[in-house]
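Possible regression after last week's pipeline update?

I re-ran a chain I had predicted before the update to compare outputs. Posting the input and the new output here so someone can diff against the archived version. Not blocking, just want to make sure nothing changed silently.
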Amino acid sequence: MSSFSFSRPLAVALALGLVSASGIAAFAQEATEAPAEAPAEAPAEAPAETAAPAADAAVDGLSMGQAPADGPGSTYVKEGFGAWELRCVRVAEGAEPCQLYQLLKDTEGNSVAEIGMFSLPEGSEAAAGATIIAPLETLLPAGLRLGVDAAEPKIYPFTFCSQMGCVARVGFTAAEVAAFKAGGKATVTIVPAVAPDQAVALDMSLSGFTAGFDAVTAERVAAEAAAPAEGAAQD
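New output (post-update):
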């Protein structure tokens, strides 16, 4: 359904929030509207210091901010694995947190949801965890369904909603991770609040999942190995 999709830039990395640009866009439109009447006489040349405002200049006293291009907290794609991306967050020091990411689209190619998956230490009840973000227009009581190929899907609750959408934080057993590795595709199903009698099924490709999950696991193991050494150095 083309009307059931995100209208914000998509850039997620682990626990980083996604910020909607709609408020800024509305403010910019209001601030740049032409006046009702043009002044009778305009100066021949604008002063040099006001001709080109800096990127982080304030508008009516409100700073628009400036995002760091590649500083700590910024996200980058470290490697691609089929339909998946290994996305990591730059940090000032220490190991970078990484996740396996995929943007989910409907049959018309509209961006609807996204999933970020990460590996968990051995011995945990869950072998992997994931954060799945759906649009704010999602019917929350219906939950989120996820199943691999023809297997019976599981139902997961939504944890909370914010500007970035409605979030489901889910865990997968080792058997379920193995099913992801062996499967062709998974299906994520959500229900629109405006059409509770309908469901939106989103294909989640499993192409490249095995290599991608092995890579995100290797990143976690390396981070855990580096942690004791960093702690000893500080002592």
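Follow-up from reviewer: compared with the archived run. The longest strand covers residues 111-119. Marking as no regression found.
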